[in-house]
Amino acid sequence: MNDDAGLDPELERLLDDAWDALEDGDLRAVRRALRAARDLDAADPAVLEVEAVLAREQDEPERALDAYHRWSEADPDDPEPWLGSAEVYLDFGEPGEAARLLRELLAGPPLDPLDEADARHLLGCACEEKGDAKGMAKEWLATLRLDEANDGPESRITREEFERLAAEALDGLPDEVLMRLANVPVFVEDRPSEALVLEGLDPRTLGLFHGLAMPDQSVLGPGPDVGVIHLFQRNLERDAPDDDELAEQIRITVLHETAHYFGAGEQDMHRFGLN
Description:
Layout: H1 9-24, H2 27-41, H3 45-57, H4 61-74, H5 80-91, H6 95-107, H7 113-130, H8 133-150, H9 159-171, H10 175-180, E1 186-189, H11 194-198, E2 207-210, E3 228-232, H12 233-239, H13 243-261
Parallel strand pairs: 1-3
Antiparallel strand pairs: 2-3
Helix pairs in contact: 1-2, 1-3, 2-3, 3-4, 4-5, 5-6, 5-7, 6-7, 7-8, 9-13
């Protein structure tokens, strides 16, 4: 969300209402606040940002792209509308357009390191969609290194606190699931290794089950390399705006990676009591 410093107080209030409604999923209230905001200043970048996000929520890619384009014209130095447009192209199956836009952005004036990391991550996603494994690995490795450089020296919470939250998530699983997970260690790391990223793992992934899923194991029982669940603390912290959301995201990630251990897709999680 854009910095609203310097906005007309009434416009700022309307935009705050719009963002609150977006968070609550109340699109009708968003539209109402946005109409009033447009009446005050339809060309303000902060208004155009809400317009673009609302269009995306309503699955209206052309309207979203138009709002991002007008935002970029109003504030040519802001990379956010470029990144938003690339996300729209990716969401709607046009990775070539996303890659073109991102390469143009990266070829321009130097970006803030955080924005460059976001641009390279999206470019890696576009390369993945296009089947360009070499380009994907190049951009995602650059993303990993930029994210590491952009981080402060300390995590938001201690490793011990993070592991406690992960243990609580595991304790909440059904007893039958816990019994089957008895031989599956859970490792907490900051991020995926460079080796995993070069193998094609998204550097911003939240968790990973690595190894032999239960349906593929021998009928004689799990072997010595049954697999492990990885949780990536810095990525999870980056994805969650506050500690309550972080705890919930850890829980969701543990559930997802447990489902992968059982050989289940996202849609099958309820079969194992993991929803």
